[in-house]
Amino acid sequence: MLRIDEVMNHYVALCTQVPLRPIRSEHDYEQALTSLNALLDAGARDEAHPLVDLLDILGDLIDEYENTLLLKAASTPGEILRFLMQQHGLGQSDLPEIGSQGVVSELLAGKRSLNVRQIRALASRFGVSPSLFMDTSSQNSSSRVTSKAGSS
Fold first, then answer.
1. Is 146 inside any structural domain?
2. If we measure between CA atoms, which residue out of 61, 11, 56 comes closest to residue 31?
3. Cβ partners under 8 Å of residue 96, min gap 6
4. Of 7, 50, 126, 150, which residue has the fewest beta carbons closer than 10 angstroms?
């Protein structure tokens, strides 16, 4: 039988040494890196080490935070798509849900904007928020309005 009080006490004690929670700030990130380095120094990279699973979990949390930072640093939907494609080892022809290789190429080059259907498909495929693919920069929004007005 699971004794929640006992588990909670051990978890809280462990978390004072190793941050086993999502990393939400630079401080949390630095703490996680310090813990990761201490585990590596203790030999936890050895598959037989009793803390190898702890090292893996902490590494995953750090990786998730770093990927989130990279996504936030990307300034356009095309850059975000390029990053996700690289992370998943995909080429331009590997995204039939958003169009042909030519369409993907235009999206990556910033010559074409994503439509709502494509945004939903990409968010579903990569397991991310659709908001990542929404172009919120005023420069890109105004250039789209200008190009639409000029084509009338």
1. no
2. 61
3. none
4. 150
